[in-house]
Specification:
Elements lengths: L26 H6 L2 H22 L4 E12 L8 E12 L5 H69 L5 H35 L6 H7 L1
Antiparallel strand pairs: 1-2
Length: about 220
């Protein structure tokens, strides 16, 4: 909603100079606390609980009821009494609906197996993502180092070309070519720095972002 001449841009290039390092504290616990793994584990636990409940529905329901007290015989007074106790077992079994309960148990067991397979797949995917993030972290760090070295070499070549131009040894076009090489190398160095920072953020995300503060407090 503003004109281009009214937009003020702030140079945020200084953020690239911050020493943002990745410190690994407990990788196993970090991966285990990933939200996708926790969600898959909850789904598997829920399906397994329903499977156990469906299996229990096939068993008979046995209950006991008892009575213990004093019984008066022949009168309203307590002159002629005797102690009496009684235990009555009770069994309830859904015989007529047994085929339906059996089919429900089999279906729930299949759902449990499917949830367990999904849980395994989520774990394998999490391990794969974590390994790839670490490999990307190393590769981006190497590319950043190479880009910085290239920028230093290009800058030294430009300074030498500038001195030679001032002495009249090379034409102005060669000085412009050297300057262009410096700008290209500087752009590549900035892009490599940004890619390296993104790789570090991706590594934190793959390991649930709980490497420094949260796990240190837990271990203490």
């Amino acid at each position: 909603g503003r004109l281009a001449q009214n937009v003020k841009l702030t140079n945020e290039q200084a953020i690239l100079d911050h020493k943002f390092t990745v410190s690994l504290n407990d990788a196993n616990e970090s991966i285990a606390l990933r939200p996708d793994i926790s969600q898959a584990l909850y789904a598997f636990s829920q399906a397994n609980s329903l499977s156990v409940a469906a299996s229990k529905a096939l068993l008979p329901d046995i209950s006991l009821s008892g009575f213990a007290g004093v019984l008066s015989i022949g009168s309203n007074s307590f002159s002629d009494t005797q102690q009496q106790w009684q235990v009555a077992p009770q069994i309830q079994w859904s015989i007529l609906s047994y085929p339906a309960l059996l089919a429900q148990r089999d279906a729930q067991q299949f759902l449990t197996q499917a949830a367990y397979s999904d849980y395994q797949q989520v774990i394998l995917q999490a391990l794969s993502e974590s390994e790839l993030s670490l490999q990307l972290l190393v590769n981006q760090a190497q590319q950043k180092s190479f880009a910085e070295q290239r920028y230093q070499f290009a800058n030294n070549a430009f300074l030498q070309a500038q001195a030679m131009y001032e002495e009249g040894q090379i034409p102005y076009l060669e000085l412009l070519d050297a300057r262009r090489d410096v700008l290209i190398a500087q752009e590549n160095a900035v892009d490599s720095t940004i890619s390296s920072l993104l790789a570090k953020v991706n590594a934190y995300q793959s390991f649930n972002g709980r490497w420094s503060y949260a796990l240190n407090n837990t271990n203490q």
